[in-house]
């Protein structure tokens, strides 16, 4: 490695290639050679690059650590509130699950991005209004509008988190793509934390069992539930302070599973024809069909969120285009099934909500597909795909707000 570095010192392209081939060995060899290369400006630049230490600590600033620790404790406390105050757990969790984590993450990014006081007060007002609204809706187990509000409220809070994530710069729309990347990285970090926590839980319970103490019930009721509530906060902190930990994993997963999802969708559509099952007469099948649609759309969006013309080759863009085309077909089937059910059995809150969501997703997918085709045919840049996503993500948040707050009144709380 030493001789190769010396031979290619005046060939930046080859030196970069050598560095990317084996970074740890390159750094060790270069640092060993550096004393005899001190007078070379290029060598000095490489030395500074290889030995640069970020001024920001791995664990962030003391204020940030204190904020995250406090948020994690509050999340754990909110998760255990039914036990502490003897509340009905089903009532509390179905209506307030989103409030355990999202307001804390919103507060974290509001502090980190130093958003204006007026914006902070506006966000706090919306969250408090949402808390009051969802908890004062009439208690009716069979109310479709109540269930819809409980499902769409966390999605609305997620949209508010996206707005706060971008800070005051969110007005230019660019940070919605960054927000999608953050979600992918957070999902990977949460998975790692859950695996680690699961191993730690198994080890702790079994160690205490060896000395005759059965702590399983206590551990799950207090430690595990509180820990689960704190995981998104801790995961966000790690993603923000050490972005290099997982920022290559989520796009890798998206690129890996995109072709698999494409093949799976084609096989599934073919199998559906011969199975006799269809979303037109089977309500449960239609729900699963829409769940599949949302999952594949998320895969496309996470892939595009990391995309750039330099990183994506024509094959990857082609796979994304084909995947979007097949997803448009799936969406078309789901949308026609919803319209068929409305024409046959009338408009209900559930059908209205699914209809609106399917129309939005179809328009969005068509726009993304057109942009992907433009990038594939070299008529436009891949960045335009990201701009089309920026346009629609706030619209989804607006639709969630309509379903959450207006549907109960429009359908008389049915």
TrEMBL record:
<protein>
    <submittedName>
        <fullName>DUF4153 domain-containing protein</fullName>
    </submittedName>
</protein>
<feature type="transmembrane region" description="Helical">
    <location>
        <begin position="145"/>
        <end position="166"/>
    </location>
</feature>
<keyword id="KW-1133">Transmembrane helix</keyword>
<feature type="transmembrane region" description="Helical">
    <location>
        <begin position="393"/>
        <end position="411"/>
    </location>
</feature>
<feature type="transmembrane region" description="Helical">
    <location>
        <begin position="92"/>
        <end position="109"/>
    </location>
</feature>
<feature type="transmembrane region" description="Helical">
    <location>
        <begin position="252"/>
        <end position="274"/>
    </location>
</feature>
<feature type="transmembrane region" description="Helical">
    <location>
        <begin position="286"/>
        <end position="305"/>
    </location>
</feature>
<feature type="transmembrane region" description="Helical">
    <location>
        <begin position="352"/>
        <end position="373"/>
    </location>
</feature>
<feature type="transmembrane region" description="Helical">
    <location>
        <begin position="186"/>
        <end position="208"/>
    </location>
</feature>
<feature type="transmembrane region" description="Helical">
    <location>
        <begin position="317"/>
        <end position="340"/>
    </location>
</feature>
<feature type="transmembrane region" description="Helical">
    <location>
        <begin position="121"/>
        <end position="138"/>
    </location>
</feature>
<keyword id="KW-0472">Membrane</keyword>
<keyword id="KW-0812">Transmembrane</keyword>
<feature type="transmembrane region" description="Helical">
    <location>
        <begin position="220"/>
        <end position="240"/>
    </location>
</feature>
């Amino acid at each position: 490695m030493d001789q190769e570095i010396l031979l290619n010192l005046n060939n930046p392209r080859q030196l970069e290639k050598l560095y990317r081939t084996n970074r740890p060995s390159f750094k060790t060899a270069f640092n060993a050679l550096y004393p005899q290369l001190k007078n070379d400006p290029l060598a000095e630049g490489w030395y500074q690059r290889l030995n640069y230490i970020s001024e920001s600590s791995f664990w962030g600033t003391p204020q940030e650590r204190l904020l995250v620790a406090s948020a994690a404790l509050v999340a754990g406390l909110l998760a255990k509130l039914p036990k502490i105050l003897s509340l009905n757990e089903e009532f509390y969790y179905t209506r307030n699950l989103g409030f355990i984590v999202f307001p804390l993450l919103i507060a974290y990014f509001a502090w980190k991005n130093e958003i204006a006081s007026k914006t902070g007060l506006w966000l706090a007002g919306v969250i408090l209004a949402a808390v009051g609204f969802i908890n004062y809706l009439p208690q009716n187990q069979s109310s479709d509008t109540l269930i819809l509000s409980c499902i769409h409220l966390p999605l609305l809070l997620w949209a508010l988190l996206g707005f706060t994530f971008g800070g005051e710069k969110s007005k230019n729309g660019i940070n919605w793509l960054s927000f999608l990347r953050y979600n992918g990285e957070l999902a990977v970090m949460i998975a790692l934390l859950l695996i680690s926590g699961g191993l730690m839980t198994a080890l702790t319970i079994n160690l205490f069992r060896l000395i005759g103490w059965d702590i399983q019930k206590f551990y799950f009721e207090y430690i595990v539930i509180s820990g689960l509530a704190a995981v998104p906060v801790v995961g966000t902190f790690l993603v923000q302070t050490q972005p290099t930990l997982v920022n290559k994993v989520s796009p890798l997963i998206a690129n890996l599973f995109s072709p698999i999802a494409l093949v799976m969708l084609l096989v599934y559509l073919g199998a559906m024809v011969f199975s006799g099952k269809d979303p037109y007469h089977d309500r449960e099948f239609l729900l699963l069909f829409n769940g599949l649609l949302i999952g594949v759309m998320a895969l496309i969006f996470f892939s595009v969120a990391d995309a750039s013309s330099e990183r994506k080759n024509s094959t990857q863009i082609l796979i994304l285009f084909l995947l979007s085309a097949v997803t448009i077909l799936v969406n078309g089937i789901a949308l026609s099934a919803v319209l068929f059910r409305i024409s046959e059995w009338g408009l209900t809150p559930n059908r209205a909500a699914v209809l609106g969501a399917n129309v939005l997703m179809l328009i969005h997918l068509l726009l993304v597909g057109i942009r992907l085709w433009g990038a594939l045919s070299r008529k436009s840049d891949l960045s335009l795909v990201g701009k089309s996503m920026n346009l629609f993500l706030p619209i989804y948040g607006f639709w969630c707000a309509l379903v959450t707050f207006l549907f109960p009144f429009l359908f008389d709380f049915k």
